Batch of 4 targets.
Target 1
Amino acid sequence: MRRSARRSRTVSAYREDGRTIVLIPARMSAAEEKRWVARMLDRLEARESRQILGADELVARARELSRKYLGGRAEPRSVRWVTNQNTRWGSCTPSEGTIRLSHRLQGMPEYVVDYVLLHELAHLLEPDHGSRFWALLESYPRTERARGYLEGVVAARLPAQRESH
Ligand SMILES: [Zn+2]
């Protein structure tokens, strides 16, 4: 992180020699700084993951996530993007081992797409959102952060509430 006295308002971030540089105004408070760094890292990751995974790559990714976080117990047969899912980020058919991801996830940070994929993989094992379901997601370190990101996306799209006078 580099603080710059010349920088009065703008924050920017880029990668340099494998490191991430975040430029922030010198006057920013520690709390603001923390918020901005997280936001800029999300943006960087989103930019980098713009490259959209194809069906084969999605299945490979899903198998990798299953192996890493679910002991390989979830065995997806197909994973594909769909454009008709506007209220859900993902869905699955456990009896067929098929997973569908909303195209609205495209361009979001990789950890968010991974979370939705892992969420659907967990549904192949546990259909309901009970405690056993959430226990399956416990080993994925970014569950809370990904859920927060998706809630933020939903909130940002709701029409702004009018103030009453
Ligand atoms: Zn679910």
Target 2
Amino acid sequence: MRMSELDNRSLIRFMVGAVLITVSLSGILLLGASTMVMAQSVDDYVGPATCQACHADNYEEWDGTAHSNAFTDEAFQSEWQSQGSPSECLECHTTGYDATSGEYAFEGVTCESCHEAGLTMAVNTAPELCGSCHTGEYGKEKFAKFQEGIHSNSGVTCVDCHMYEDNHRFEVESKACATCHTDDDIHDRRLILDLQGASLESEAMYEELEAEYNELVNSLGGEEERTTLMTYVAIGGAGIIALISVVVAIYYYRYRGA
Ligand code: HEC
Ligand code: HEC
Ligand code: HEC
Ligand code: HEC
Ligand code: HEC
Ligand code: HEC
């Protein structure tokens, strides 16, 4: 009787211990797996061809742009190779670059550089996204310059100007400016077109006319001379008008008299 009681107790203890160990082991495994997913490892990226299957329009716009060619681009390749192909360049010229292993998922700035790895399909319009690459010497300090400008302070984003109607070429279209700078805006739409160089031609014409006018004024000499000249012109003009009036009066008198 006592022997079997002891057996039962150690069996229960053994089973409880086994359950506890299993639970904590799977907990550790689950935690590890979830942190691996969050880190977006190189294997999480599916590549632009996968997105193309359902988003053909976006793919076609993006294909052939500076973003899609950011790695294969001759200018990049020659500079990169001349420096001995340093891996830190790949941070912005490839997709899914992993600094610890030096590996990357795809060449160039692809869909998943901006929409997160895999089929997350996240949309991020924050200037900080563009600014993560468009910074430093190679990025021509675009982000810092943007932050100093009036648009940044007014809440306007890179995407507002560079992705008019969601275009994935990232070229700025003048229509993009007109979405905000309308005719009844204090900053008239024409001002914006002027600033974009649309009226440079008429500006040149204006300058030419102004120069001609100044030349004419100068050729008339000083203020005093000009006044005398104007007086002569006035007297002469009045004389001619008086003469014409007299001639007309004489003809009229003769005609009435006849
Ligand atoms: C099997 C088809 C399919 C594939 C593959 C696919 N998508 Fe989508 N995606 C959709 C559908 C459907 C929608 C919702 C309708 C829409 O907005 O066009 C969508 C929406 C989106 C949106 C907008 C989400 C929003 O909140 O407005 C983005 C961004 C996007 N996809 C990016 C991607 C990227 C990047 C890839 C490749 C990594 C990809 N998609 C692959 C079908 C797909
Ligand atoms: C922080 C991100 C970042 C890093 C790191 C980076 N670049 Fe770039 N690079 C850019 C961006 C953004 C542009 C586009 C600049 C523009 O046109 O305004 C660019 C453009 C270039 C261009 C001009 C390409 C052309 O078609 O004219 C070359 C060449 C280049 N990078 C080489 C390199 C090399 C070599 C390295 C490493 C030593 C490097 N980059 C590291 C972001 C980066
Ligand atoms: C340089 C960053 C960048 C790259 C590269 C990029 N996108 Fe986008 N995409 C954006 C941003 C930002 C928006 C949101 C635009 C907006 O809301 O005005 C967007 C919007 C979208 C949308 C939703 C709007 C729409 O047109 O239906 C889809 C779908 C999409 N992108 C798919 C793609 C696919 C597919 C690729 C690759 C072929 C790609 N994107 C590459 C930044 C990017
Ligand atoms: C992952 C890094 C990365 C992100 C994010 C990114 N870009 Fe770029 N972008 C580049 C690189 C690199 C180039 C230059 C590629 C080359 O010419 O070799 C470039 C080129 C460009 C160009 C063309 C420049 C030229 O000289 O023709 C424009 C415009 C541009 N990016 C705008 C944007 C905007 C707007 C966003 C945010 C929606 C954005 N980029 C997000 C890396 C990035
Ligand atoms: C108010 C509108 C506006 C905003 C906001 C804006 N840009 Fe631009 N961007 C322009 C214009 C206009 C040009 C010059 C015309 C062109 O080259 O397409 C330009 C040129 C560029 C170029 C060089 C393109 C080339 O062909 O040389 C890059 C890269 C760029 N912008 C990136 C950005 C980034 C990144 C942001 C946000 C941090 C941003 N821009 C915000 C209007 C804007
Ligand atoms: C999303 C809206 C939006 C877009 C798109 C936009 N702007 Fe603006 N812009 C503003 C706002 C807001 C201001 C701040 C001044 C104001 O209240 O009008 C501003 C200010 C300006 C100013 C300064 C005016 C001043 O009095 O100092 C200029 C110049 C300008 N924008 C040119 C442009 C050009 C060029 C484009 C296209 C490449 C453009 N903007 C696109 C909203 C926009």
Target 3
Amino acid sequence: MVDCTVLEVEGQYGDCLHLGEIFYRIIERWVDFFCRISFDTLKAEFPSTIKDALLTEYYRKAEEVLQLEYPITKPPHQALIDRLNLQLDQGLPSTQWEWGRIASQFRDPKNYDFAAGAYSPIDTLLEATMNDPTGKKDPNFRTILNAPVARLEPQPTPDQLSSVTHVVVRDGDTERKIACKKVVLCAGSIESAAILLRSADGDISNFGGVEGEFGRITDHHILSVAMPFIYRNMDDRDLIGGMKLQTDIQFNIVKDGKVVDNTVALANISLDAVSFLPRNDVSDSLLPMLIIAYIVPSALVPTNKVELNPDNEPQIHVSWADDDIFEEKQKVLKDFAVDIMNKIVDVYDIRFAKITSAGYQPLLHKITVDDIHLSQAGAGVVAHELGTIPMPGAGGSGGMVDTDLHMKYGWRNVSVCDLSVFPYSAAANPSLTLAALALRLADRLYPDPKYSPLTVYNLTGDSILINMTNSKHTKKFGPELPITIHKGGSATWQIETREAMYIYHCKCAEEFLVQMVYPGTNAMVVNLPPKAEICMCNSTPLSEFRTTFS
Ligand SMILES: Cc1cc2nc3c(=O)[nH]c(=O)nc-3n(C[C@H](O)[C@H](O)[C@H](O)COP(=O)(O)OP(=O)(O)OC[C@H]3O[C@@H](n4cnc5c(N)ncnc54)[C@H](O)[C@@H]3O)c2cc1C
């Protein structure tokens, strides 16, 4: 679907959804695995402000927004995870296998057999535009279908910053202009780059200062091993269900006594689970399947390009990054796959069925490196291509957008938020990082809407004292000290996230009740907390303990 989404935000975005959530959902497709980029990679390849923001705040928020779930861990699952993490072969990378997290409902007993429920943003977008609980459509949010963005206007001038005033969209043979105050480009690595090119009359140097930074579209290698298997006791198949596990692994390739590569790759296991992972040349089979897939990271490739063809549509030139030790890496990954497979054989007493041109071979109870084939997916196979409009690298210099994702050149009111801003093709499925960056950008563009009102009603028969953890500490946003709500009364706080509300009978009470409260909701207090054994309230005016707010 090609669409143009317009947000006109004045102050708070209403009660419907966190603004960042909208931003994130605008830019996202549906995905399978969600994982963080490793600490080592963020440190080595991303600006430190981005690394810190992701690790301290925004990964957690993105995981909350996406409602990432873990499946149920039964003893046989733990047994396999423990066995995989027990690395006795010193030559192989150490591991921290854990469940791969996905944004969908798990159905016991077949974890990861989740055809119902894979995450798509479209429902949420439609909900935001059409399903307004008050019966009116939100006046600040529009999705315009079938409106591909051609370019932004006015055209940039080298070494000068101007403001974009219009988004030009195509409507059949006609062009229409949408007036705008701020623009977030999120048409994906190729189309966002093409929109910039079309806006600059095909010549990116019209932005000034971006030569060498623009258009280095890059994908990482995805390598995989796939093989069907049988359980010796097929009842185990139901007991174990599907498993998806992930671990970071660090290469430690040594040449002439020196470490020549210690980059971090990602290993995924999909055991008898529905998966988008490449299956090599193994055709669909009624047998359960093991797929081991690796993502090997890559720096942006300077010779790769995005250009416009004569019809003003993007055309790309892509090659893999030079890697002198790619063969050595493949050897490590193959040995690692053999180790994984033999551990699974041990723990679940399975037998792999090697497939050759002659059909199924006798079942294997011990895998050797000659039994497996490491195959390589083509570039772009799971839409991880990125880096065309990058942020700065680890040193903080370079980039076409700054660390707030705002364009550094050409325009002052344009931000970019899709995979094109990644400065490095890390060994991770990229959507979680993109979601986290989108939430951060939303907070940068509209700092206040993340706080939503929480109104607390006192439905008990007496006054109560409320202490809210972590409410916003400004007068504008309401009380931060304990306040009294008289019976039948209410008070409103602005909160950003789930908080604990402590309810006391009065300031002298030592015991209290705790209630969890959420932004954008009403909370009722119906039970009176215990009274103080000795109450001194009458000797101290209550007003001393109360913050008034207007
Ligand atoms: C089969 C498959 C499985 C995947 N599995 C995973 C996974 O498990 N985990 C993970 O992290 N990632 C996964 N991905 C990758 C993930 O979907 C992408 O990395 C992600 O969607 C990229 O986001 P983006 O915002 O950069 O681009 P996109 O998601 O491509 O968003 C760009 C949007 O802009 C629209 N658009 C394009 N041009 C224009 C224009 N001119 N005007 C207006 N709108 C325009 C497009 O229609 C699209 O909606 C998977 C991808 C595929 C294909």
Target 4
Amino acid sequence: MEERESGVMLWLMPADPSALPTLIDTPDGSRTAFNARFGEAYGSRFGAAGQARHVFVEGTDTHTHPTPRVLEIGFGVGVNFRATLTDAARRGVPLEYVAYEFDPATSEVLRAVAEGNEGTEHPAWTALLEGWPTLPTLTVEAEQVRLTVHFLDVLTADLPQAWASALYLDGFSPDRNPEVWTPEVAARLAGALAPGGILATYSAAGRVRRALAAAGLSVEKRAGPKGKREHLRAVREPLPPLSGQ
Ligand SMILES: C[S@@+](CC[C@H](N)C(=O)[O-])C[C@H]1O[C@@H](n2cnc3c(N)ncnc32)[C@H](O)[C@@H]1O
């Protein structure tokens, strides 16, 4: 099995599948949780917040963008959102964040994973917990943040077109959640990126790289977060510069 945790998290599977997902403390002080349906953790056990920052926030250059527009597949327990929210708030820039999630964890799980960690003081996070989950779409606006979570299957949802400065492709691993890593989905995700927009994923699998390249993106390997050698980022070609007439 490729990616997320090399299968070693299976021992954490709760004996009673109806029990609350197992929380996992990670070495950087952040937390993730185990998802029994997919048999995998939501984030890296080597550092959930570290992965969110390195792979997704910095891997897409969101940390330097003056007006980031982030599209995320899938929202999970919100670790990537809190890392992005924290960065945007620290820099004083507005943030638009649109996510898709077809199997929402409970608000108790989101709260427990986040407790004492970054972003929890922000009113957008508080409002998210209050409204979670509002089907089919939850929208939160607070300070300079607008968050929209579509509780939909990304395979059939309408995606924004040429919109995202950053796309976080964060399904479960290609072995366990193969449907979100196909060339067809990659082509749709490429269409959701604005010109010059950057997609990042924790995966470095050859089939993911080939799917992103076949979608017309320029794919590069980048040093991975703690516990992982490499990850991928893929860039949509920018618009040509205006001729000076
Ligand atoms: C690795 S977790 C994402 C972790 C999340 N980004 C975070 O920061 O906590 C993968 C998520 O993708 C969701 N997912 C998988 N397939 C999906 C699909 N077809 N449509 C929408 N969401 C999907 C899963 O339910 C799960 O919550």
